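Sharing a chain and its predicted structure for anyone who wants a worked example. Both blocks are below, sequence first, tokens second.
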Amino acid sequence: PIVVIHEVAGDHRSLEAQVRFLSRANRCITFDSRGYLPSDVPEVPEAYGQDTARGDVVAILDGLRLEKVHLVGHSMGAYTALHVAIQHPERCLSVTTIGCGWGSSRHDPEERAAMCADITQMFREEPMAQAAAKYSRLPMRRAFEAKDPRGFAEFENALADHSAKGLALTMSQVQAKRPTLWDLEEPLSQLEVPLLVSVGDEDDPCLDGSVFLKRTVPMAALIVVPRSGHTLTLEDPATINAALPELFGTVANGTWMAHRKEL
């Protein structure tokens, strides 16, 4: 089975191309995170957080009686997948991170705090359509709009459907407060779960973090997709769809990063 976890600007639809393709051979489970309709949108900040997001995924596994799964996470979902793997490696056959690293700079934590505060304020105060238009056009998504205007318009319209309250609380309580990838260096260096890291070369906020994961996690492999930005699941679905079956197959036959096992 495969569990897919969406990004902050997405929902279960953001990984539909992967679910449609992978479900030909695997059971696929997708869901909308808390704060994303039709899931609950709690109104108190205490109901959100990185640990809570991790617990939600584990609760889904328990509820569906899934002992082990492949986790595929995009951006915010990639962070959550990593936290599940760190805390519950026995539940993970593999982990795939797509565009992981936004807001994770080790050099300027004040910049992340200010950026998350500005985005939180935007979702709280501006009309949702206006906020969606701004957020969807951050520099890391410009390649998507240029290459696929129709697909980008669908992405922007889907973002405008979201709960502004849910997005604001997710930004302020999850994105702003979660540890950076560098904060997780010690447990990541001990993680033995097979890890596939993918990132677009136009996704500047996530390039350093993705390379860090490759260099830190013993069983990590890295794909850098040229001329691509943050929204890889929609922008370059064929690349992601080609990489995932190879990961799953080599994990099943024990040959994923086999040369590393001998080190």
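Comments welcome. The chain has 13 helices and six strands.
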